[in-house]
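ping. complex inputs:
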Amino acid sequence: MALFRTAEIIKASKLPPEGVKLSRMIDAVYFLPIAYLGVFATFHMHFDLLAGDWDFWIDWKDRQFWMTVTPIVEVAYPGAVMYYFWTFYRQPFGATLCITGLLVGKWITIVFAWYWWANFPMNFMMPATMVGSALILDCTLLLTRTWIITAIIGVWAFAMMFGPTNYALFGYSHQPLVVDGQLLSLADYMGFTYVRTGTPEYIRIIEVGSLRTFGGHTVWISAFFSAFISMLMFTIWWQVGHFVGQSYFWVRGKRGVRTRMNDTMIVGSDEFARRHGTPDGVAPKKLSAGAIGSTGTTFAEGKS
Amino acid sequence: MNAKNLFKLCVIGSLGMATLGLTLVFNASPAAAHGERSQEPFLRMRTAQWYDTRWNPQKTAVNDEAIMSGKIHISEDWPRAVVKPNRTFINIGSPSSVFTRLSSKVNGTPMFTSGPLELGGDYEYVIKMRGRIPGHHHIHPMLAVNGAGPIAGPGAYMTIGGNYKDFTNPVKLLVGGTVDTETVGLGAGLFWHALWGGMGFAWIAWFAIRPMFLIRARVLAQEGGDALLNDPVDRIVAYGVLVACFVLIAIAFFTTDAMYAYTIPLQAGEPKIKATHLKSDLTMKVLAADYDVPGRALRMTLQVTNSGEQPLRIGEFTTAGIRFLNKVGVANNLDPTYPAEIMAVDGLHLEDESPINPGESKEVKLDSRDSLWEVQRLMDLVHDPDQRFGGLVMSWDESGNRHINSIAGNIIPVFTRAAAS
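pong. complex structure:
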């Protein structure tokens, strides 16, 4: 017994062998150079513009703003990309693709821009990781198969797991030390010792004790707040994905009336002809009852 | 391709080759400074008045310590256009972190975070540094003012010898042990990035080994396609990945928590720095000042009164980190290591060079004249929307005691040589 349903899926696609081969070539070209590099480049830019400094510098990784801003910004792009991959292909790796793409971009920047060009040590510029959160988000979508539940449970876990995941990377930087009689965290001192001419200390947007009414539990308060805003952000960007990810074309009929066609994925097939007719008016043969696509009347329009 | 298109391509190609050729011939030299000359004169002359700046030693090696020190007077005549110095940070203007900063004190108070400075206040700063990147670097003290940006002080070249690979920056922790800021935490960070990245790529690869797009889209567009694409093995793997993620996160968190039992949040307080004030037996008031554009000179008429007990002689006028001295200034305050390119040792002229005697009040005509006004782009003062100048006038008594006055006033440009004479 085969591990996957691949053979059944290929059969149901009704593509000839050469079509199947071509589709795999399209997969390779479309996925790596276009989808992956496109996402990594644009998401990297999007993230750096909105949350860049918190991720660049170790002395910006605080309990309040870093904890709040990063998941909110990192869930936006995955929302739109997950819509696209899930709605049109039922592929549950949109979030992981975005976050790994972001990190590929970040590491390229760290090595070439920050380490080789600007001479900062890599530990000072270490980015946070949300790959674990992204996997949780993708798995939630695959298992629940509904974006609403994904937005409520998956995104909540996505944001809440940010702090614990990254404590393993940055916990050491909160060890205390004393310099010139003043208590500092190691992260503070690293931010002080590595000179940034254009980034003086007051540029940092970090906790200055403004969450004092919450009994010092700043991390969890920030994480909860971030999770709620992330849910909203995910929902908005899922709809952005819906808005920009529609595929349709316009057809002008015999009487000159323009009609919107949504069935772009089955153009040229018998199913398409059965539903919309053919230019010469010849109807295709009926498929056997029970087969996938045999009804000829209930095509999905690419909506989740 | 027709002949017309071929011709166009040839022209474009020729232009490209010409550009490349010119670039190679007129090779631009690397920038050696930090754009301090590009700041407006009113900003440089009337905000932070830098003096007594020292870079010691100017030749060091990797891991050796050096000190940059000096004084800043915060101008009483702070420009309207510049946000007041309510949150400032004493910084280093350097091409990347060629030195690490070990400590930074302003009037004896450590300045790890930013804080307010007082208009009219006088502050002495001492910045201790350690050589990190070998090379010949232009280093400035810098006052960063929140809302106004960095205000660069005078810059000098400092040379660091040795090899970067030998650099270490050990720091002693409060809970015991020493770490090197160059490498601390790097191994753990790389490990977790590799682990999570590997899991992420494996998850994508799990779906990439099967038909990804066109075939699935065609199946999904049919009734029953959704169910067919919901492969049971994917669901099993998803449950496994979900559990693995939560377990891994828990292990990572609790292990780290046990490893670092004592931690503190980022520190964001502000230093409370007490200002000192300039001391002088002279009082000075600017009666008139003009800027001789063709003559490259700032000419002032000052009303000066000596309320002390010793005669005083004016020897230096300094503004924007640029020093204009006469013989008195050279004899009393010439630091041979101060960068020659921002100092005019014969740049200060008095119409009456006699001392200002105790109890005497007189008009003093002071003329600071040098090409530095143009080279340092202070002549752009005439283009500023705020036609005022500022600076420090230094005087000495016969015992060598220095008296410093901060002056500021309106300035009138003189555009033509005929008018200037």
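The CA atoms of residues 209 and 216 of chain A lie 9 Å apart.
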